């Protein structure tokens, strides 16, 4: 089916995924929505516990008990994935939508060879012989930059370095030419020079396959390099959603603003880091009203009582906050980004 | 601590175990009331008759015996063998009631001393490592290579008859399990960052073992210990059954079972005639072990989620 | 020339690789291989490098939490490597450490007041009452209300636990504190809280920091001078500004270019290194970086370059600069 470029490849609408634990209901994802168009990279940004990984698992329908998707729609190529059966999802997973996980050591089976794991995916989705699968596997390993792939296919994950294992994961994910790739913190566990290699590889492959990517991370630097549009998540909801330049140059949500001004960076000489006071809220005891209000410097009484909705402030820019004018003023004063070389 | 107590009481199996244990403790404490002694040494089981054959439950005290006790000046509070008599007229009921005290004595003493020995050896072995660890572990292995019951039997035969000799034998061959468990736990706890933090502060080694390592690793040992109390009593009973152990007439469950040795099958033509010599002691032993096992099981279940999360 | 507070001279730490039933030593992991640098009073020296470079091992070896294989560590004029264990224990008051993992660095069974007081108790510095008074003061200093001192570590968040770790390190009034990836395990929005706290405490107590991290952005923000390590060796030492404006070593250049910057328009020299970091059990001959170096010359695979002062206070170990 040829996708009309004006229609999004993936549209998530009002997704709700809750965990029914013995201590209470954890609303891990509470009304999340976004669109990913063909060939586009969406960055899903947030810290631990914000719900970004759960969103990814919900899309792939890989949730484990006690998690359950209780509401919303996940429209992939126009069809709602939440209505699909297990058998139908198995055909989609790996072939149309593929996922790369954070810890390659736990995502790869330690007792199976690398070659077996990649060819397993190929044999599942395509009617090819074992030999053809092995040939394709060697090609894939070469493509992701693994030296001596003919030898590597017989090696086990623990014999490879972290960077290599991540490349194997990418090879596995790309093996069936998926049109949508979801990467959950794929480089967080890697050294920074290896991270640069992997990000470079991913961009190259995506350009070649004309695929789309949902990049999940907490690292704003990585997002600045790779994403087209960005969704900032906090406490199970999207708090700001815009294209890259808007997020970095004119954010309107206090959390986004706080993040940008509190991280040390190489390009700007910072005299003092801004602080977001307090801690990430406990999902069993979310605050009333706006979930960010206890930590927000722009907080007003309304924020403590009423939770703001996600509103469009201009074309393509959505924010969930009552006080965006105040934030806009501060942004003008404090955000110093622009065209600059490292100082 | 509160969480542990709460969990212990909410679980049905552990509740059964706790109730049983409370019953046994009550029996042990109130033994003088439940089965009033008839001699100076309370642990000597009174005899209901001189008959070598066991008498069935409810048999009255024979007149000859009554005369003997009257002559000795003992007050006879009860004069029926409620559970019957064992070989030689020994009152089973009395033996089992006072045997409860003996069981607790054996269980608690052997387990606590062997646990202490095991803890000491295991912890210094794990903490200091290297050649000390090698030597101590090889010694442990040597002790482990003796089959427990046989070794205990040999030792008691050498040491002589008596319950204390039995306890020594049980301790000598019983500490190794604890040593191994604590050694394994300390080996892994040793690598924890908070141990390195204590070293960075300048804390001395013995303080580190005592304050940091042991409190964090002792729980599995306590679980194993509680399970062992039951098995120690069983082993002591086995030794008594085999003829080593408590002196004849001593109030000890193993003694009671040993009295039944010749009468288990019964007389020709009447199988199981003397069932009461086996059943009553059997019930006591089984329930005692069960109580400790149920509690130990629940403690172990509490332990697992604790390992994963918070205290 | 001011005397340094801490001088590390030719420090070596090898870990044996044991195999077989009899645990024969079949090789060595050369975690720290002839490392020398100085730390001056009141400064923050950043120690940066990727995994396997030996930066954490260096800190642990300096504190003798791992025994050095060779070399000298001169602290306040005295070589602490040569000290007897009992003397060293007393010396520990002056050199403390904050660990990376806030979850495993606090004993889960101790109340936080006892965790913080342990050092004071060990060295018998104050009596019982004074001790806990000081604990209360320290907790307030690191931003935790003192009334929580009877709580256990699991009742606190990661950032709060790290503050407790800082309070513990401060309790002994040390001259130098090693911060071993002190913020790496924390959420992004918490990091700046802890970084600011460390900076404030440094000013207030005139502390000296050896700040170890793999995140070059954090290193750039907090350090005065920077030491760059690769595979057990130092490749470059310089003042912070100098390191970033006149970077000398190719590895440092690659490292700087690899760091993602939260700026969509940021232009930088694109250097992508080939291959993986080799194992410290089998480092390459000659310059350890040469198999991945984009400016490699023939001499690099044969002779190991020495760490030389190329410009004033700017050291580099690279053959590109040796012909001077």
Structure description:
The complex is a heterotrimer of chains A (343), B (311) and C (324). Chain A is an alpha/beta fold. Chain A folds into two domains: 223 residues, Rossmann fold, CATH 3.40.50.300; 86 residues, no CATH class. Chain A is 35% helix and 22% strand. Chain A is built from 13 helices and twelve strands. The longest helix of chain A has 18 residues. The C terminus of chain A is likely disordered. Chain B has a two-stranded antiparallel sheet. In chain B, a hairpin with a 2-residue loop joins β3 and β4. Chain B has a single domain, classed as MetI-like (MetI-like fold, Orthogonal Bundle), CATH 1.10.3720.10. Chain B is elongated and about 80 Å long. Chain B is an all-alpha fold. In chain B, α2 packs across α5. With 324 residues, chain C is of the alpha/beta class. Chain C has one domain: P-loop containing nucleotide triphosphate hydrolases (Rossmann fold, 3-Layer(aba) Sandwich). In chain C, the strands form two sheets. Chain C has an eight-stranded mixed beta sheet with strand order 6-7-8-3-9-10-12-11, with helices on both faces. In chain C, β11 and β12 form a beta hairpin. In chain C, α4 crosses α5. The longest helix of chain C has 18 residues. The two termini of chain C are 24 Å apart.
């Amino acid at each position: 089916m040829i996708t009309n470029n004006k229609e999004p490849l993936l549209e998530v609408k009002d997704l709700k995924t809750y965990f029914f634990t013995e201590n209470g209901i954890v609303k891990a994802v509470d009304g999340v929505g976004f669109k990913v168009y063909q060939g586009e990279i969406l960055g899903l940004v947030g810290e631990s516990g914000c719900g970004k990984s759960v969103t990814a698992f919900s899309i792939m329908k890989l949730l484990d008990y006690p998690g359950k998707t209780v509401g919303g729609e996940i429209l992939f190529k126009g069809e709602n994935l939440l209505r699909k059966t297990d058998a139908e999802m198995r055909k989609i997973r790996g072939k149309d939508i593929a996922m790369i996980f954070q810890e390659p050591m736990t995502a790869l089976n330690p007792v199976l060879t690398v070659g077996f794991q990649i060819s397993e995916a190929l044999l599942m989705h395509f009617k090819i012989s074992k030999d053809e699968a092995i040939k394709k596997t060697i090609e894939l390993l070469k493509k992701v930059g693994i030296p001596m792939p003919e030898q590597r296919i017989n090696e086990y994950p623990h014999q490879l370095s972290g960077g290599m294992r991540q490349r194997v994961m990418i090879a596995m994910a790309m093996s069936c030419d998926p049109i949508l790739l979801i990467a959950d913190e794929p480089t967080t566990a890697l050294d920074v020079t290896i991270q640069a290699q992997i990000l470079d590889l991913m961009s190259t492959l995506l350009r070649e396959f004309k695929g789309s990517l949902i990049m999940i991370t907490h690292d704003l630097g990585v997002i600045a390099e790779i994403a087209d549009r960005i969704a900032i998540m906090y406490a199970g909801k999207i708090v700001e959603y815009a294209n890259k330049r808007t997020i970095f140059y004119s954010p309107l949500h206090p959390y986004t603003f706080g993040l940008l001004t509190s991280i040390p960076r190489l390009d700007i000489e910072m005299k003092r880091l801004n602080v977001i006071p307090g801690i990430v809220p406990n999902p069993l005891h979310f605050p009333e009203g706006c979930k960010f209000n206890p930590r927000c410097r722009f907080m007003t009484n309304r924020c403590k009582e009423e939770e703001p909705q996600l509103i469009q402030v201009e074309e393509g820019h959505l924010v969930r906050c009552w006080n965006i004018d105040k934030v806009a003023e501060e942004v003008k004063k404090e955000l110093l980004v622009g065209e600059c070389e490292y100082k | 601590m509160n969480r542990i107590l709460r969990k212990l009481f909410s679980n049905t199996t552990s509740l059964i175990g706790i109730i049983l244990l409370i019953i046994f403790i009550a029996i042990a404490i109130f033994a003088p009331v439940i089965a009033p002694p008839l001699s100076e040494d309370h642990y000597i089981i009174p005899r209901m008759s001189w008959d070598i054959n066991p008498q069935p439950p409810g048999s009255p005290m024979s007149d000859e015996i009554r005369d003997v006790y009257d002559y000795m000046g003992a007050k006879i509070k009860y004069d029926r063998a409620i559970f019957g008599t064992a070989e030689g007229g020994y009152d089973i009921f009395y033996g089992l009631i006072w045997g409860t005290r003996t069981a607790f004595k054996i269980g608690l003493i052997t387990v606590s001393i062997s646990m202490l020995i095991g803890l000491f050896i295991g912890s210094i072995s794990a903490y200091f490592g290297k050649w000390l660890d090698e030597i101590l572990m090889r010694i442990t292995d040597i002790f482990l290579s003796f089959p427990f019951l046989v070794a205990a039997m040999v030792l008691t035969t050498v040491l002589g008859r008596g319950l204390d000799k039995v306890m020594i034998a049980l301790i000598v061959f019983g500490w190794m399990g604890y040593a191994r468990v604590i050694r394994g736990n300390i080996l892994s706890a040793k690598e924890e960052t908070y141990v390195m933090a204590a070293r960075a502060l300048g804390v001395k080694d013995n303080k580190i073992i005592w304050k940091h390592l042991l409190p964090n690793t002792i729980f599995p040992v306590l679980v194993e210990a509680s399970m062992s109390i039951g098995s120690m009593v069983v082993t002591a009973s086995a030794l008594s059954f085999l003829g080593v152990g408590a002196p004849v007439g001593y109030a000890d469950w193993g003694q009671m079972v040993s009295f039944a040795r010749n009468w288990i099958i019964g007389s020709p033509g009447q199988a199981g005639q003397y069932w009461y010599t086996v059943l009553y002691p059997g019930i006591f032993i089984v329930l005692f072990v069960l109580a400790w096992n149920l509690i130990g099981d629940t403690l172990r279940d509490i332990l697992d989620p604790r390992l994963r999360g918070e205290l | 020339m001011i005397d340094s507070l801490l001088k590390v001279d030719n420090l070596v730490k090898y870990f044996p690789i044991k195999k077989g039933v009899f645990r024969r030593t079949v090789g060595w992991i050369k975690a720290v291989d002839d490392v020398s640098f100085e730390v001056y009073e009141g400064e923050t020296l950043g120690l940066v490098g990727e995994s396997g470079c030996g930066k954490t091992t260096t800190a642990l070896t300096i504190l003798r939490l791992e025994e050095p294989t060779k070399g000298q560590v001169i602290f306040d004029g005295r070589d602490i490597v040569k000290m007897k264990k009992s003397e060293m224990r007393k010396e520990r008051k002056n050199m403390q450490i904050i660990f990376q993992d806030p979850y495993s660095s606090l004993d889960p069974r101790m109340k936080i007041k006892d965790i913080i007081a342990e050092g004071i108790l060990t060295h018998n510095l104050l009596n019982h009452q004074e001790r806990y008074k000081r604990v209360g003061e320290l907790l307030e200093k690191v931003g935790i209300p003192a009334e929580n001192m009877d709580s256990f570590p699991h009742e606190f968040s990661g950032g709060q636990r790290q503050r407790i770790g800082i309070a513990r390190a401060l309790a002994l009034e040390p001259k130098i504190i090693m911060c071993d990836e002190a913020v790496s395990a924390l959420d992004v929005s918490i990091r700046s809280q802890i970084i600011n706290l460390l900076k404030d405490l440094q000013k207030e107590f005139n502390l000296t920091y050896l700040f170890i991290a793999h995140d070059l952005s954090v290193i750039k923000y907090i350090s005065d001078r920077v030491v760059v390590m690769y595979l057990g060796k130092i490749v470059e030492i310089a003042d912070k500004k100098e390191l970033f404006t006149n970077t000398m070593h190719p590895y440092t250049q690659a490292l700087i270019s690899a760091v993602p910057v939260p700026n969509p328009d940021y232009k930088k020299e694109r250097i992508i290194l080939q291959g993986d970091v080799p194992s410290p059990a089998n480092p390459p001959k000659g310059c350890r970086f040469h198999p991945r170096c984009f400016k490699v010359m023939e001499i690099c695979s044969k002779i190991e370059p020495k760490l030389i002062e190329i410009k004033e206070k700017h050291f580099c170990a690279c053959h590109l600069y040796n012909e001077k």
